[in-house]
Amino acid sequence: MSLAIVASQALVGSVAHRVQVEIHIAPGLPSFHIVGLPDAGVRESRDRVRAALTSSGFGFPPGRVTVNLAPADLPKDSGRFDLPIALGIMLATGQVADALPPSLSLSRTVFAGE
Fold first, then answer.
1. CATH number for the domain including 49?
2. Residue 113, domain member (yes or no)
3. What angle do CA 81, 78, 105 make, to 5 degrees?
4. Which of 22, 35, 51, 58 is the most buried (most CB within 10 A)?
């Protein structure tokens, strides 16, 4: 089992709210679930992230992938979570830990795509 947490943000109007993208990878039958009040655009990121990782030469975990977008009561929309989800999967599977520059502090960096 592996866990990675990546910081992102959700926009409500013109206000950005911090969102923790928590990726948990466990053994079991292959599945990919996104929880935490995602809209259809965020749920579709399952397909975009899988395609992006595999076409970029990275591996996609064969087991259960659960993505929690916290806090759960904040609505999440758009594809801005694709990048933090993909990065979290690569971190949780150990594919980028050695490739990150020492100056990049994940605890002080917010990732958003689109």
1. 3.30.230.10
2. no
3. 25
4. 22
Q: Alpha helices, DSSP H only, in 23-64?
A: 40-43, 45-55
pLDDT over 80 at 107, yes or no: no
The answer to whether 52 and 82 have CB atoms below 8 angstroms apart is yes
The pTM score is: 0.91
Higher pLDDT, 68 or 12: 68
Helix, strand, coil percentages, rounded to 5, for the chain: 25, 35, 40
- What one-letter code names the amino acid at 73? D
Buried b (16+ CB within 10 A) or exposed e, 51-66: ebbeeeeeebbeebbe
What sections of 1-114 are H helices per DSSP?
40-43, 45-55, 82-92
The residue with tokens 């943000």 is 9
